Amino acid sequence: MEILKQLGLWKCLDLRKMLPWKSTANHHRQKEDVRPIFWASRPKSYVYRTREWDEFPNGRWGDSSSPAFGELKDYHLFYLKSKSKSEDLRQMWGEEITCVEDVYEIFSCYLSGEENRYGHKITKLPWNEEEISLETQRLIDLGLIDINKKGMLTINSQPAVNGEPSSSPSVGWGSPNGYVYQKAYLEFFTSRENVAALLEVLTDYPLVTYHVVNHNGREDITNADRLKPIAVTWGVFPGVEILQPTVVDPESFMYWKDEAFGLWLEQWGRLYPEQSPSRQVINHIHDTFYLVNLVDNDYPKGNILFEILDKMQRRREEKRATEMPHNVDEEISAKKLKVSNPKDEQDMAWQLQ
After folding, report:
1. Which of 203, 210, 206 is nearest to 187 (CA)?
2. What's residue 3's pLDDT?
3. Rounded to whole angstroms, how far apart are CA atoms 299 and 347?
């Protein structure tokens, strides 16, 4: 890049992003144009895990039951360990972690660009190897930092977009003179208590698709059809069919959750001695928090997800103030919901599992 700038050629190149995710130079994947959103910030891992596929999705994701992602044990030595020095990571993620609130602070500092309590800027997290994008800035303006401070630790997100030019610096992609669309998406780790309140609030939002899972997959709660992916990014361009390069796929999410939870232990937890309080806090988050994804399907109206999370927090506080001590795990299990034969996104039949 620097050489091209010195030669005066940098501005001459069309660096337009043809897809919303980083593609690979592998000639076997030249026609690939659809991926699950979960690996948006870890494209190398996705490429590695799918390297044995005979063909790659083109035009549509296809049957969700067929992808066979590489098992975690095949690649974790390569892709769960950060290439950064442990000393540099400890400076960013904390020389010492004494409680979960310390972790909340690290996430919020990453998003805000502020220095942590040790005077270091946080330029990456285990799930995000790059600095904040212009697209993420839109969600920061809506309250992304605030929800991280309150224990919704976001690792992936995108704003709602309704027909913006493909040349947009923040959300644009694809060929010239096109228009791009997105459904608002949030993916985050959060506590059992928050999940119990969230599941109650979500019953009032039938156009929001959700998937909630814990580290071992024993708690796996969704209102989506598990074999039907949801397009969350698409584009309309002159002379071609509509492109939909990013999907939320329930089956793929279960493969991704192993990697997402594993990063707590392999990248963050291993920075500290095995029996140290810091290691125990990270282990606690891995063992007890849930991974959640939310899709707001009503994209023309903007983003309802922050409203939902605000109501979740208020509901949690109400329960703390008015209810006797209760078993949160049993409460979550009792709220497992499924959709029975949905005709469309606005006609859903709910029933207790």
Report:
1. 210
2. 54
3. 17
Q: List 188's β-bridge partners, or say none.
A: 154, 292
- 12: tokens are 């001459």
Distance CA 163, CA 185 (A): 17
* Cβ-Cβ contacts under 8 Å for 289 (sequence gap 6 or more): 153, 189, 190, 191, 192, 214, 215
| Both tokens assigned to 272 | 């500290």
pLDDT in tens, 20-69: 988 887 878 888 999 999 999 999 888 888 888 878 877 777 766 666 67
| CA dist., res. 147 & res. 135, Å (int) | 17
Q: Which amino acid is at 140?
A: I
pTM metric for this prediction: 0.87
Packing angle, helices 100-112 and 134-142, rounded to 10: 120
Give yes or no for a contact between 212 and 224, defined as CB atoms under 8 angstroms apart.
Answer: no
Report DSSP state, residue 133.
P
Place of tokens 């897809």: 19
For the record, the structure tokens of 216 come out as 């071992």
Residue 236 region by backbone torsions, left for phi larger than 0, else alpha for psi between -120 and 50, else beta:
beta
| C-alpha Rg value of the chain to the nearest Å | 21
Tally of residues, the chain: 353
